[in-house]
Design brief:
Elements (H helix, E strand, L loop, with lengths): L2 H11 L13 E5 L2 E4 L4 E3 L6 E2 L14 H9 L4 H7 L9 E5 L5 H9 L4 E6 L2 H10 L4 E4 L12 E7 L5 H7 E12 L5 H7 L12 H10 L2 E12 L2 H10 L8 H8 L5 E12 L4
Parallel strand pairs: 4-7, 5-6, 5-8, 6-7, 8-9
Antiparallel strand pairs: 1-2, 2-3, 9-11, 10-11
Helix pairs in contact: 2-9
This protein binds S-adenosylmethionine (SAM) and zinc ion.
Zinc ion (ZN) binds next to loops.
Length: 284
């Protein structure tokens, strides 16, 4: 089936998962290649099978040239062990899962390779990220949207994934079903530590990282929070290493000299050290 036909079939069957980003009413039909709400607002379904739900242009620091390196290193398995630790926390593996700030889609796709079934949606504010996700992966419906003003209907989602991405807990609670779960991954102190010490060799203030504030904020919004720490090292080929430098926001704060230094001193392995936060929405 063509990508656009698959997306149209998904939207037709699961219109109740969405709400119009303009008037917040529900969508009620597909007319040609458009999704239409009850107030007559119409959104195009692209040939790639994606929908662009943003109502205005949004800026984003994650540029297109970071996406292919992230795709390649994710495919090489950098995050696999982390996702294998996340997967058992998903209760409703046949329910509805949404990946919030999905980037180029590898994480949600790997969870589906691990056995995740049911309805899957991945969205990101970056149009380039969603184009890549839709080109590579058919396990989910991919769309462009803002997590702060999302076009997703209330209380329809069993599992929210929020992996290295920003949060908006008001929206997350609105979207979650009663008793649904939010699974958030944040870096821990030693996340990419070897690369951090190369890129920030001249910036001692930037060498340490603490997630205390992010974790505290999550706990404020989920009375029932469990946490788990995941740590492992991943062996790097030279190609993986160069992709790692390109894909990480760590490079943003580094001086051009330190980036050159890091490029010419390749690492043989890298530490993945993250905190998994599991929040359950109270039963109503
Ligand atoms: C570090 S990347 C993580 C991507 C992916 N989850 C992964 O682990 O590979 C953070 C992502 O959050 C997205 N993002 C930032 N602000 C957003 C927003 N307001 N709404 C949706 N996505 C957003 C960025 O475009 C970027 O793709
Ligand atoms: Zn509308």
């Amino acid at each position: 089936m063509k990508k656009i036909e698959r997306a149209k079939a998904f939207l037709q069957d699961h219109m109740d998962l969405f709400q119009c980003p303009i008037c917040k009413e529900s969508f009620n039909k597909i007319e040609g290649n458009s999704l239409e709400c009850s107030q007559g607002h119409s959104l195009n379904i692209s040939k790639k099978g994606t929908v662009h739900f943003l109502t205005k242009t949004m800026s984003n620091d994650y540029t297109a040239d970071m996406l292919s390196p992230r795709y390649r290193i994710a495919q090489a398995g950098l995050f696999n062990e982390m996702l294998e630790a996340v997967y058992p926390h998903i209760d409703a593996t046949t329910g509805t899962t949404i990946d919030i700030g999905s980037g180029e889609g590898s994480q949600l796709n790997y969870l589906s390779q691990l056995g995740l079934k049911g309805k899957q949606i991945g969205f990101d504010i970056s149009k380039d990220a969603i184009s890549l996700a839709a080109a590579h992966f058919d396990n989910a419906f991919w769309c462009v949207a803002d997590l702060a003003q999302s076009p997703f209907a209330s209380e329809q989602y069993d599992t929210l994934l929020n992996i290295f991405s920003p949060s908006n807990y008001k929206e997350f609670h609105r979207m979650l079903k009663s008793n649904g779960k939010c699974l958030k991954i944040v870096p821990e102190e030693e996340y990419l530590i070897e690369l951090r010490s190369l890129l920030y060799r001249d910036r001692e203030d930037k060498q340490a990282y603490s997630n205390d504030k992010v974790v505290a904020k999550f706990r404020e919004h989920f009375d029932d929070t469990q946490t788990d720490t995941i740590k492992y090292t991943f062996p790097l080929t030279l190609e993986n290493y160069h992709d790692l430098i390109e894909m990480t926001p760590l490079s943003w704060g580094a001086s051009p000299e330190s980036i050159d230094y890091a490029r010419s001193h390749p690492l043989k392995e890298i530490t993945i050290h993250v905190r998994l936060l599991v929040g359950r929405k109270n039963q109503i």
